[in-house]
Amino acid sequence: VFQKWVNREISNFDYLIQLNTMAGRTYNDLAQYPVFPWILRDYTSEELDLNNPAVFRDLSKPIGVVNEKNAKTVKEKYIFFFRYENFEDPLGMIDKFHYGTHYSNAAGVMHYLIRVEPFTTLHIQLQSGRFDCADRQFHSIPATWQALMDNPNDVKELIPEFFYFPEFLENQNGFNLGQLQMSKEVVNDVVLPKWAHSPEDFIYKHRKALESEYVSAHLHEWIDLIFGYKQRGPAAVEALNVFY
C-alpha cells in the first residue's frame, strides 16, 4: 500500500482510509473512528488558492500547536495546571501528557455528525435526553478552526466525511439545535468558508485540497504523528504530541 501511494497509484484519501483500517480504526466503533487531518488554514478568503502554501495547515505539528502561540502553553499547562516537566503522579499510575483530551473520540464524531442519524440520537443520549447548548455544537467551519487556534485544549482532527459527504453539513431533518448566546443566530446548516458556495462545493474543493501537491508532499509528517514513530516516547515528547 505504501509503495502504491508513493508511486501515486492510489489517492491520499484512499491511503489514509487504508492506514486507518490497518490501525484498527473502523466506522463501526465511534471510539476508534477513522481520523483525517485538518489540511487547510484559510477559511476566510473569497477564493481558495491551492497553489499558495500559506493556505495549508502545517502538517508536521499536532493540531494543538499549529498556532505557535499555543506551544508554550501546551508545554507548561496541564490538566489541573501541572507542568509537563514537573508533573508526577504520586501513585505512579498516570504518564505525563501534553493534552488531556484526544484528537479522535466518540464525542467528537457525534459533534461533527450531529445533523445525521443515528448520530443525532446518540448525541441526545450522551446529553441526557436533549441537545447540548448551541454554542458548543458544530455550527461553523471557520469558527471551529478559529476555536482550535485559540484553545490548545481543543485538539479535534477531522473525520473522513469532510471529504465526501456534503449532507452532514445540512440540517435536512430540521432539528431544533437552538440559538447562539451572543449573536442569537439560529443554529441550522453548518456555516461554510466564504470560498465554498454550497456543501457540495465545499466537499469538492476540500477533497481537491487533500489531493493537492502541497498535501501530497507533507502528508507523511502528519502520519508520523498519528500512526508513526512520533506517537510515543522521546519523539512524541519533542513533537508536543503526548496524549492522556
Automatic annotation (TrEMBL):
The answer to whether the entry has keyword Cell division is no
Q: Does Isomerase count among this protein's keywords?
A: no
Q: Which UniProt keywords apply?
A: WD repeat
The record's annotation in InterPro entries points to: BEACH_dom (IPR000409), BEACH_dom_sf (IPR036372), BEACH_Domain (IPR050865)
Q: Which residues form the BEACH domain?
A: 1-244
Recorded hits in Pfam families, A to Z, give: Beach (PF02138)
Q: Which Gene3D superfamilies match?
A: BEACH domain (1.10.1540.10)
- Per the record, the domain of life is Eukaryota
Q: Which GO terms describe its biological process?
A: intracellular protein localization
Q: Name one GO molecular function term.
A: protein kinase binding
What cellular-component terms does GO give this entry? cytosol; membrane
- Its protein name is NBEL1 protein
Q: Which organism is it from?
A: Chaetops frenatus (Rufous rock-jumper)
